């Protein structure tokens, strides 16, 4: 209080704000959190946008790829056609079987029946809900791929038989003291002669492969789907079935007969017992055995396909890509 009794007037109040332009730690932390949330909200749609962009680009180019692949197919450039048809297998939900069918067809034309069979099996599975005519187209091409695979295996067997004949002639000439082709007898030049029986065994193995391929081709033609074919196509199918049966028989006849001195007794049967169905005619028994063998070989072919898929999944860590699009611009042909 002043000397005259009047209290002093209070001065103006100035809050302690620190240095000009600075914020409190609490406000700075809140602002930082808000900025992070905004950044996250902006980044969240980015993967979806990228996926949509990639998918859109893929779909936009599918007709271009199909047209180019069809052109290469029509130009008899089947390897290039197969490569481009294969690009349609992934990221496609429209008629996914077509890409596998087109690729398998082109692969067969290029001579790669092993890959063609795999792709056509996949096409048949993907076309499970399609019209019977669609499945019939696939199985006809699949059957033809098995048949041409059998033709290749038959050629390999015949080559081994030709080598065996040439080797036996060379060995006979050597034993008679005549000139002979040393390379046929000892191709490695290490003094070890080739055994003609080894070549016979190789030929027998390839003939057995061919018999199995022809039997599977016949079995595929009997799958459901081709019951409503036009009459002309039914006749062609019957002719193809007969041709496959003839090829099976030829491959079977080319294999040596089992050794009669070592007969095998079926499990559960004693020597001298008459097996069930002994009253059947020889022709009926032969037909029953043939049908049973066909079913077994078809099952083995399916098992091989399933094993290939499992190996694919184990190696790549996921399912095989499914999909495909387009009909290849009309290049999906039956042969």
Automatic annotation (TrEMBL):
Record's keyword terms, sorted: Membrane, Transmembrane, Transmembrane helix
Coiled coil: none
Stretches with biased composition (Acidic residues): 266-281
Transmembrane segments: 40-62
Bias-annotated ranges (Basic and acidic residues): 282-295
Biased composition (Gly residues): 320-335
InterPro entries the record matches: TPR-like_helical_dom_sf
SUPFAM superfamilies referenced in this protein's UniProt entry, alphabetically: TPR-like (SSF48452)
Region Disordered: start-end pairs: 1-28, 219-335
Membrane among keywords: yes
Keyword Magnesium set for record: no
Annotated protein name in UniProt: Tetratricopeptide repeat protein
Annotated source species: Oerskovia douganii
Lineage, top ranks: Bacteria, Bacillati, Actinomycetota, Actinomycetes, Micrococcales
């Amino acid at each position: 209080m002043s000397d005259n009794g009047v209290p002093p007037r209070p001065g103006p109040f100035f809050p302690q704000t620190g240095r000009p332009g600075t914020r409190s730690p609490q406000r700075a932390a809140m602002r930082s959190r808000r900025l992070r949330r905004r950044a996250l909200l902006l980044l969240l749609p980015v993967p979806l946008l990228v996926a949509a962009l990639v998918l859109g680009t893929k779909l936009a180019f599918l007709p271009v790829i199909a047209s180019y692949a069809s052109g290469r197919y029509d130009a008899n450039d089947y390897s290039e056609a197969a490569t481009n048809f294969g690009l349609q297998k992934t990221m496609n939900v429209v008629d996914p079987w077509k890409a596998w069918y087109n690729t398998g067809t082109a692969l067969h034309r290029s001579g790669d029946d092993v890959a063609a069979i795999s792709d056509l099996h996949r096409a048949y599975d993907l076309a499970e809900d399609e019209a019977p005519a669609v499945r019939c187209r696939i199985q006809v091409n699949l059957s033809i791929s098995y048949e041409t695979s059998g033709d290749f295996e038959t050629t390999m067997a015949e080559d081994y038989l030709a080598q065996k004949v040439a080797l036996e002639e060379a060995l006979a000439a050597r034993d008679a003291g005549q000139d002979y082709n040393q390379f046929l007898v000892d191709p490695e030049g290490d003094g070890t002669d080739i055994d003609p029986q080894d070549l016979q065994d190789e030929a027998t193995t390839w003939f057995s492969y061919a018999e199995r391929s022809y039997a599977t081709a016949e079995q595929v033609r009997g799958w459901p789907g081709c019951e409503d074919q036009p009459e002309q196509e039914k006749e062609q199918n019957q002719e193809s079935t007969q041709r496959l049966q003839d090829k099976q028989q030829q491959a079977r006849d080319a294999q040596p007969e089992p050794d009669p001195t070592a007969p095998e007794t079926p499990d559960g049967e004693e020597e001298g017992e008459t097996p069930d169905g002994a009253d059947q005619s020889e022709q009926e028994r032969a037909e029953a055995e043939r049908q049973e063998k066909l079913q077994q070989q078809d099952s083995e072919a399916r098992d091989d396909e399933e094993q290939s898929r499992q190996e694919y999944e184990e190696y790549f860590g996921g399912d095989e890509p499914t999909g495909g699009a387009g009909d290849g611009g009309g290049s999906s042909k039956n042969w």
